[in-house]
Amino acid sequence: MKDMGKMMKQAQKMQQKMSEVQEKMGQMEIDGSAGGGMVTVTMNGKGECRKVKIDPSLIDPNDAEVLEDLVVAAVNDAKGRVEERMQEEMQEVTGGMELPPGFQMPFGG
User: Fold this and answer.
1) Average pLDDT of the segment spanning 19-23
2) Which of 41, 43, 63, 107 could form a disulfide with 74 if both were Cys (CB 3.0 to 4.6 A apart)?
């Protein structure tokens, strides 16, 4: 039974660390960009979009498709950077232990 108590304490400690990571990630700002930096999207570490910056030279009412494509690319770039950062943070929590494939860290508010 001592082992069970020890496991529970370790699980509680890991849960606390995960909560701290969630808090930290929610306060981070991570940029993604496209078009050589002409479109920049800023997300927090939870993947919520915070800002979009568009170089005025890209705004052409007759060719919105280019701008739309660049916004999508910048969002995807930012999302990928958020996921990479989350993996780095989780590696610290788990001590480098691999998480099961498909494991998603729950985002709570």
Assistant:
1) 84
2) 41
